[in-house]
Amino acid sequence: MNDLDSTVCPASTRLVGRDQDLAFIQSFFGNSEVQGAALLLSGEAGVGKTAVLDAVATGALRNGVRVLRAAGVQFEGDISYAGLNQLLVPLLDDLDVLDPVHRDALRVAIGIGGGPAPDRLLTSTAVLLLLRLTAARTPLLLVIDDLPWLDRATNAVLGFVARRLVGSRIGFLAASRDGADSFFESSGLAEHRLRPLDDASSTELLALAHPDVSPAVRRRIAAEARGNPLALVELPTALSAEQRVTLAAVPAVLPLSERLQALFASRVAELPSRSRELLLLAALDGTGDLAVIEAAAGRADVDDLGPAERDRLVTISADNRRLSFRHPLIGSAVVELASAADRRKAHHTLADVLGGQPERRAWHLGEAATGPDETVAALLEEAARRRLRRGDALGAVAALTRAAGLSPAASDASRRLAVAAYVGVDAGGELDDATRLLAESRLVHPAGHQSLHAATASAFLLINRDGDIDTAYRLLVGATESAEPEHGYDAEDEGLIEALHVLVLLCWYGGDPKLWEPMLAFMNRLTPGPPELLWVITQTFADPARTGAAALPRLTELIATVGDDPTRVIRVGTASVFPDRLGAFRWATLHLVEQGRAGTAPVRRHLGALMHLGLDYFHLGRWEDAAGLAAEGLALCANHDYRFFAWYFHYIQAVVAAAQGDAETSAALTEAIVRWAMPRGTYGARFFACHARALAALGSGDFETAYQHACTLSPPGTVAPYVPIAMWGAMDLVEAALRTGREKEAAAHAAAMRASSMAALSPRLEMLVLACEALTTPGRPGLALFDRALSLPDPERWPFDVARVRLFYGERLRRLRATALSRDQLVQALETFQRLGAKPWVARTAVELRASGQSAPADARPSPVALTAQELQIARLAATGLTNKQIAERLMLSHRTIGTHLYQIYPKLGITSRAALRDALSELDARADDGR
Q1: Can you give the pLDDT at residue 577?
Q2: What is the pLDDT of residues 455-475, one digit of tens each?
Q3: What is the mean pLDDT of the chain?
Q4: Is pLDDT of 441 > 90?
Q5: How far apart are CA 581 and CA 769, in angstroms?
Q6: d(CA 923, CA 822)
Q7: Does the N-terminal peptide bond of residue 528 adopt cis geometry, omega within 30 degrees of 0?
Q8: Are the CB atoms for 440 and 412 separated by under 8 Å?
Q9: Which residues contact 335 (CB under 8 A, 6 or more apart)?
Q10: What average pLDDT does this structure show over 91-98?
Q11: In terms of Cα–Cα distance, which of 453, 563, 573, 439 is closest to 502?
């Protein structure tokens, strides 16, 4: 029925997540090889069948197709031809096109004429004739909703018609609910099942329908709705104002709106009381374990679930003795129908049979409680600790919030709310919830705002919302000092240790060595001594160039016992970043990322894992993977409002772009980092931007700019204290210094690298130290240092760094006329740079290889690039034999600027020295004359 082309509804009224379904329907009816077609839609209740029918009908009308509609109604199910009456009312004035026999039979059937009941075949034929005659003038689309609820006679007629549409201009589209009994004979007809929405579409629909609901609550609703559009739209309407914005306030079993109750609850209400009792226990238990349900039910038996099984409300697996609701909202309907007293009784009963499972027992006792109860509150607080240890941050927040609600003492309630707020910001990823919990903590007990958990949560919220490092830092230092009477610098005090872990990050973000003084003083006062992990972090993360090496044995022990606790995995990762030990437990970080993607790990820990993997992959040469992880991290930051951490992922993208030669992208990313960081005092982020900028400038041959950025990162002659990324940029500084004629500065920096602990931290950093010593050791004595650098264990783990060292080595060998050895190093460097996609270094290596007498592969040869007017002037003067100083005097520039320009000119011309300038310029002039 090709007249029904373009039946998909316009973009302004697009159904979320149904583009593919609508495109299929359009294709089905628009098939030019088929005239006339019938299609049956099926799907679970609430999946959006009616909405799809509406969209198709709207599109058909806009395309000039006449639409006839009917919908099944339960109370009309016993009235013969009631559905046919609905469908044909628009054609009543056209009945005279039929011959008298068919016209009169049809008039009697649909109730507008008198006489005996007509024969079914006669009526069916009359309907088919009427539709065909009408379609001869205008194409028709029959749209039938709730097909199973139509009366039996109408179903028979429609089944007859649907099988006799070939060759007509009639389309037939009907919808029915999965599993519904129907008199319609569907065999032989095409079917299309509407499936639940995918995760992305569910998220989009919720955001469009309920923008005022917090992202955390939306995610909870999406999990319960399982892609059911009606549930996605209706569930938020049954929540209170507080529940719509605070995840911790949302009950374990979601309440249902009136529409959802009508959809799900009516079937539950018809069950026997024993069945409902078992279903209530199952819904509140949440695990589906039949052993628990039977133990709690006492006199009831699993056979009492038979009616629920037969009505397709639940399924029971005999293999693992598990009960599962066909849809989570059926469980919600069960709970909705039970009285509050019945629910409390069920919770008590479940708590009694779960004595060996303290977390679940505490939760049920909390739900059964009707007033303050410190015993239950304490059990819930302990349950929260257990949940947090296994990575369930949101579960921990919920347990702590419930514990606060049951706390008789205001101070305990405030403390538990403050801890919940801290867990929410540190791990849970729910910053809005944390803000409200913190405010409630202060309201419940005003003195409680001085607690360390409250201060730590406040500090985190400050940097994320305003990025104010200085205020957050002073707040946390002050709170730690003022809370000394409570914590006494006891290393076992959980609140104190968590505060110090956050203070480490604030000091690092601030990028000022002075910030570390109070932190290190607090560490020295801890009794009997600082916890192992916290101590190692302060040694390998704060100023690893000086203190990191001594902590490596203890870091190795921590890595060996890292486990799968998300918080521990990230903190051990933090300690491992600068000693290059992330690969030693990459499996744990990858597992955490997978958990985060599945929604079973805290968002903040997921972000941390992405950060660590991104850095790890960059050094491993897996640049595409690193950029992909950075994009994933940025999406998480946006979705969960973790604005502060976006700079970290921008850095990963910037350094990858710099290494690949995309200077424009790298510059835009680093500019965004600096523009965001500087007003907020996040100078640590600025140092990362400088590293990427220096690398980008090296790639583009702008060595003077590279030197300036590298000096901002670390002054020449010292590895900047408490700026650990200065170690990563050390070789950049030495190279830029040498290429701009600053041999003394280069040598001083190489000596500073050797004097630091860099070489002891990792083989990669030792290679950088040796390479810089080789670069600053003139002539042949430097060759042995290059050899040592490249003979370290498994150097190919760090392909980009190794290839750069090989390039330096090849350059030195060529200048010493060791041509064959030079080619060997340059070929290996070129192959690595090509594999990585490091275009600037590919071009530079190709030039060196060509200068050694070996032709580089065609795809590695630098394409001729036009020189700027100033570059051309400098090149022509240099080609006449003038020195840099003489050229500088003529052009009124510094001799260093001249040297920098020449270093930029050589790669553009495909040469490596002054001696080749004359020939290169002649070739350039010849190209210009030829118009090439």
Answers
A1: 97
A2: 888 888 888 776 679 888 998
A3: 86
A4: no
A5: 18
A6: 26
A7: yes
A8: no
A9: 253, 280, 283, 284, 343
A10: 88
A11: 453
Q: DSSP string covering 589-625, please?
A: HHHHHHHHHTT-S-HHHHHHHHHHHHHHHHHHT-HHH
| Cα dihedral 859, 864, 868, 871 sign | positive
Place of tokens 């270094």: 841
Q: Alpha-carbon distance 272 to 700, whole Å?
A: 78
Give the separation between CA 361 and CA 347, rounded to whole angstroms.
9
Percent of the chain with pLDDT over 70: 92
Distances (CA, A) of 729 to 661, 687, 691, 765: 17, 10, 6, 11
Residue 587 identity (one-letter amino acid): W
**Helix (H/G/I), strand (E/B), else coil: 144:** strand
What dihedral angle (degrees, nearest 10) is formed by the CA atoms of 526, 527, 528, 533?
Answer: -30
For residue range 14-24, what is the model confidence (pLDDT) as tens digits? Answer: 689 999 999 99
Q: What is the mean pLDDT of residues 187-212?
A: 89
Q: Are 3 and 35 in contact (CB under 8 A)?
A: no
CA–CA distance, 50 with 58 (Å, rounded to integer): 12
CA dihedral 737, 739, 740, 743 (to 10 degrees): 50
Instruction: Spell out the alpha helix ranges (H) of 526-602.
Output: 532-537, 544-547, 552-560, 566-576, 586-597
> Partners of 140 in the beta sheet?
66, 170
Exposed / middle / buried, residue 697 (Cβ in 10 Å: 0-12, 13-18, 19+): buried
Structure tokens belonging to residue 143: 């749209």
pLDDT cut 90: percent of the chain above it: 43
| Tokens (6 digits) for 153 | 């006679």
Element (H, E) at 24: helix 19-29
Rounded CA-CA distance 412/573 in Å is 34
Cα separation of 560 and 585, whole Å?
A: 8
Residue 549 CB contacts under 8 Å (≥ 6 apart), including other chains: 757, 760, 761
DSSP H or E segment with residue 193: strand 190-193
Radius of gyration for the chain, computed over Cα atoms and rounded to the nearest angstrom: 37
- Residue found by looking up tokens 């070489």 in the block: 759
pLDDT of residue 240 exceeding 90, the answer is: no
> What is the per-residue pLDDT across 474-503, written as a single tens digit (0 to 9) for each?
988 998 998 898 899 999 999 999 999 999
